[in-house]
Amino acid sequence: MRLYAQEIKRILKSTRGKVVILLALIVPILMALLASEFNDANYLDTNGDIVSLHGRSAILFIKENSAEGNGKVTVDRLKDALLKYQSLYEEYGIDPLGNEYPLDLYWKEVQPIRPLLRMITQTYSTQKENIDLRNMSVDTLDSFYEDVKDRLIYAMESDQELQYPAIISKAQQMFQKVNIPFYVSHGYTRDAFDYIEFAILFLVILSVILAAPVFSERYSSGEDSVLRCTLFGRGQLVRITVLAELTIVTVMYFIGIGSHLLISDMMFGTDTLKESAQVLYTVYSLPNMNLLELQIVLALAGWLCCMAVTAMSLCISALLTESSTSMTLSLLIVILPTLLYSISGGANWLLALLPSASVGLSNNMLMSLVDLRFLILGDKAFWYPAILVCNAIVEFFLFVGITHLAYSRHQVTK
Amino acid sequence: MELEMINLSKRFGKKEAVKCTNARLTPGIWGLLGANGAGKTTMMRMMAGILDPSNGQVTYCGKDIRNNSLYRSAFGFLPQEIQFSKDLAVIDYLNYVAALKNVPPKLTKTRIDNLLSILTLEDVRKKKIVKLSGGMKRRVGIAQAMLNDPSVLILDEPTAGLDPGERIRFRNFLSANSSEKIIILSTHIVSDLEDIADNVMIMKDGELNRTVSKNEYDDLEKLYISIFMEEINK
Prior knowledge:
heterodimer, A: about 425 residues, mainly alpha, 2 domains, two-stranded antiparallel ribbon, elongated, B: about 230 residues, alpha/beta, Rossmann fold, six-stranded mixed β-sheet, four-stranded antiparallel β-sheet, 10 strands, about 35% helix, globular
């Protein structure tokens, strides 16, 4: 305990530690504010002039004008939404979802039903053709939730990567567990969720910066020669160092992501978190979660990734004697999944095996959850987000083990 | 109490840095004298247990020093080159090493205060180590080696970077603290060992060429030079 306290103190007193922790406290908050700042809304005032709103005032305006549409997505409400769309189209001769539709009418009539119309469009459109809501029969919506299931199968069969029977069967099983009817609670945006992933990526990078030079710096400075000679300077020191680094990273991560989510949820309103993930994303998405649960899952998956990446950085640091090489290599591995994903154009086993596979741009955990991503091994299908989580846990222990071995067996030759 | 090197050798690729060395060290000050590149540092590292020998072993009280916690709790080591964490103050660093050496918390403060006083570092105890002069840094290194009041103290070129006054103080400090301890002091400067070393091991080309006791040498420098002259004459 005494050594652990000393090791924590050592990290907190270092310039690198101070800078990293300060950034972890400030930047996620700024990202949350930025996410809310990018919201815009235009409306007509009493004089008929266009008024532009930004940031929180835009969020509040949109929420206020959408409130009527919040609630369970029942078949009756879907039918009402479709009928309203058709009557509005007929009455004004302009597509209510188009840009030319009068603003005052849009906010009053269309905005509340917009999420429902999007779900109908997603369910009944094919890859080749968008459904024409004007001519759609409301009776079609009687079997809406069954049709969503069919749409899921269609989506998988149309995708070369997903058309394996094992994958389709697995996806069907998963979708059976999704709570229906869905729930709409308008306000939270996809952009805000993207910013959660950016914040996680940023915190993971900070963890690497904190952990990557730890052992290699000791080797290159010669300090290792002294520490290694002490009673607790080998196995115990490496265990305590790893534990102290992981403690700091964990605290830093949860404060960073916690403050980000807190600010973000305050900006958009906690009432919006009741919305089903299927409403904000694709109607046939597989996670049985509302937005609050989705946030929690992202934060926890991000922490696991953070742990795995920190363990990897410590491992590289224990194997290399140059801290700059250790840092460069660790950072490269963090951005590698983003590069590999954009090159390969999809998920694959090679990508999934990287400890940082769930952080990045298109490859991140959020996208993996809301898209249909599976991998095949033999005749079994595995849900990609589950692979990422399992992989992070396995690699964490693997890298901690290698770090222990590498540091304990290191020979002082320099 | 004895520290013994048995058929100790170390090879780096084709180069044999230390050749089959045998020595038995008992309490007292042992000098290890040799030119740069003679293999002193490699030997010191093997004695410190931070470099595994290619052959042979080092034993402490009859037991191999590798994975020997008794030895690790009983010795202190000052490497030839040491840089300190740039963010730590003298007192923080010594507290950290004391925790690693398992010095009881109650004793830690007394030991640190005592060492800082002996090594005239009291005024800089809260100063960051990187901001200290070379000599002061060396003294911090000596302080950390002494923190656990070691029975075996291995000092690799301890006087490097010290000014003449500091060298004298250091020699006096060693003499005063050498009872019941095995102190091994490696250097290429003959005057560092004169008068204080009970025994001097002279190392040349990776071999222990000769071990002489204090009674056996009148003029260590002359002896040291004669060994090298013998080689040249051959």
